[in-house]
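Researcher: Batch entry, complex prediction.
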Amino acid sequence: MRILLALLFALLALAQPATAQDLLPPAPYAYKQLEDPALEAKAQRLMETLRCLKCQSQAISDSDAPMAGDMRHQVRTRIAAGEDPEAIRAWLVERYGDYVSYAPQNKPIMWPLFAAPLVILLLAALLLRGRFRRAGIKGDGQ
Amino acid sequence: MSEPEPKRSRIAIWLPLALFGAFFALVIWGLVRPADREVASAFIGKPLPQFALDAATDGQPGLSTADFKVGKPKLLNVFASWCVPCAIESPQLDALAKQGVEIDGVAIRDRKEDVARFLATNGNPFQRIGKDDLSEVQLGIGSSGVPETFVIDGKGVIRYQHLGEIRPEDMDLILRKLQEAGQ
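Model: Structure tokens for the complex:
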């Protein structure tokens, strides 16, 4: 059993290079924060609302994918150069569509989503009004 | 409470179950349906951003935006030596190059010696190969992975994006898109 396990681990070690991605070191600002805490906070807020394109349910701030690292580098260097976070978001949306941003956009397609809670509340109010009125009539009859 | 229930409520009593059934079917459909995980570029029809990349391998020039503004459509292939499907599309790229299609490459996060080894193993259909260590050009043209192939017209405008490797059955499509870009 122990030999089998050792063999398995040896195989896993051999399999490593095939699954490896690139061999380059991460981009300079992939894992390094900006020197200015205010700018870093600004960059962090933006990075938390940008989607990693390789690992699509993560934000680029959460992902260790090399491409997410390159996106963080891009965000941090642009913030450091004085660019507005929303301009960087718009730059990415222009290239990858709304999908790349986690922040809801104010577009006509979103209106049903924002309207749905109001419609449901209104329907509930109407239904309850009917119920209360009937109960009220019964109560009067007693 | 002895009076009979009104008839319509007998149908209404099934309504929640029917709604649940519909919801359940939707969930199952969402689980079973093969999901499309590719992020297509929204940058089709836009000009290439300004870039000038150093050579990705010795003996072959680097790549800049100006190389595409030559009046003739070209392919821009985004690849990497560490990317397995990139080797699969090599025969198709070679065949395109033999038919006279000009192909320029962008190597993503790659080392010179690895690019050289990749080209020696899989053939070299490229005229120029730029070295994109920070994925800057990749992000700049809306590419979300390797390999991807873009048809660029003679003015440097992106006309078509092919996601994933070019398979033998994709050749006609690529040639047609090149022809359309040349018109």
